[in-house]
Amino acid sequence: LKRVQLFATCLGDLAFPDAVADAATLLRDAGFEVEVPGRQICCGQPAFNAGHRAAARRVARTFARAFSRETPIVTPSGSCATMASHYLPELLGVAPFDVWELSAFLEREGVRPARLNEGLQVSYHDSCHMLRELHIRDAPRRLLEASGATVCELPRPDLCCGFGGTFSVRQPEISLAMADDKLAGTAPVLVTSDPGCLMHLRGRAETLARSRRDTPAVVHLATALARGIRA
Amino acid sequence: VSKLERPPGSFREVARGALANERMQDVLDVATANLRQVRLGAWEKLDDVEALREQGREARTRAIKNLPGYLDEFQRNVEARGGHVHRCATDTEACDKIIDICRAVDAKLVAKSKSMASEEIGLNGALEAEGVTVVETDLGEYILQLAGEHPVHIVAPAIEKTAEDVAQLLESVDGEPVERELRALTAKARRQLREVFLTADVGVTGANFAIAETGSICIVTNEGNGRLVSSLPRVHVVILGMERLVANTQDLAVCLKLLARSATAQPLTVYTTVLTGPRRAGEEDGPEQLHVIVLDNGRSSLLGTRYEEMLNCIRCGACLNVCPIYRKAGGAAYGPVYSGPMGAVLVPLLATAPDLPHASSLCGACTQACPVKIPLHELLLELRRDLVDDRVAPWWERAAFTLWSIAWSNQLGYRATTTLARLGQPLGPLFARRWSRGRTLPRLQRRYRDR
Known about the structure:
Chain A is of the alpha/beta class. Chain A has helices spanning 10-14, 17-29, 45-50, 53-66, 78-92, 102-108, 128-132, 138-146, 167-170, 172-184, 195-209, 221-226; strands at 2-6, 32-35, 73-75, 99-101, 121-125, 150-151, 189-192, 217-220.
């Protein structure tokens, strides 16, 4: 049996445990033994991107202690995959890890998702780090198409959703306006591979839903592929 | 105090105004989307974009790595052609020098073509305080001068103005009505400006590039005003940001190819002017005197630092047009001179502007668009680190991150804090108002790893 280590990420562990469970399901269904290292906490990204390097290092060490370099590490988060693969080794001065964002890993392994989303129209929102640092653009879209969904491109797929870690609370007005643009141009379901974007866009959509009908549902890619979007 | 100085909180405050202005939001959206789209089209026509970007990066790096040497070479060549070079360390020094030059020829009227460096030193105000009339002749800058405003985009300074705004401003000059149509508006501005070109005593221009090998100045415009301003008045003053140097004409060619395509999606701008020295004996046109103001204003302090690469910037504005923050905040939020990602990096390097390193979601679109491959979003991250290391970031922010990182450096702390957070969730909106005004907080659940 092939093994992978699952990095839940802090947001996944605390706020989106179902999406992490869905990622684990997808990996198991694809024939992997999924290990969830018990000492994992967070990759340190929140502090790293805010410029607090000492704090980032302290937290990033938990990642370096928890994960082995022998087995691929898979995570349902574009930005945490970027942090762990691109920035963390340099920050700590350690050897790189074999980190994979979920959709890129599934595609590399030739996984065909179940056709749970037959006939559904969805849009896909790119996580900026996943798109521009990891250059993963097509994998999540192809997986969604393979699950039966039709992917309707957003009017400006290049634009950030406005989360940006502490940016979302330093510049809340701009951050919200950016989310509104995303939500205005999407199909009824907006899928994303990043818990940060998910927290921001879903949080905004839920607030808008109080005063508006037709607000889109915001769903993690792992959930869309493991349980189908209606689940 | 430098014109670039920005007090804390100012970015958010000005941006709020822009967000509340629906018309401005539409203008920003359409204008930046168009500029981005045409640029992508122009890139596609090139055989090998990446190779050209790499050549551009090399040309700029060559100039910056040897800047003192190239400046000396440039100065020798300008002087050999009968021009004057004045090296100015600060904005005040540069303004004073230009005032001296104007006084020496008893100038009453100065015609200017577009120059961000002149905005940086606050030249118009300085000259007007001396009783000299200054008229901007770049159409966008002229519009802003009439409106009493500052540029909001380094390439398209009046990008936030509509045809209606422009018509009203031009009508305020001569009281005659004008059709709200582009051709009519330009014709009117042209008539108003023609007189200025013909009667100005001194012409002031910026410089897109300066060539060390020949002592030449290169100016690109689409309106031809740069040529009129640099050839009709008796005196031509060039304000040259000291980092605008290129080694030779080959490097200039690469930079021009990148600049026009990145800025306005043109293979070359309509007018690309290379000027070498003042009028020589036997020549009919050109100024009697040529003065080049080499402006430092903090630039040399970046040499040899990890921010040195920012001096490679060719001021094309491509990063502004792709930036999702600029698109919402508008140019004025960044201050009166430089805006968008390049401004967010450059301004804090030249003056105090603690908001700007955080005026970004670090999405990286700017870095991807930069024709000379400046890692803009990584430089913003570096600047954020400086804010923390230099204790400019508020104590409570530093304390919060330190405490958080100590708690999350072990399982016990992680479990304790997250259990507390889960139990305290109903109070969440009180503690996270900046988040929860307009967004729901995520529901913290039983940890995935405890399932």
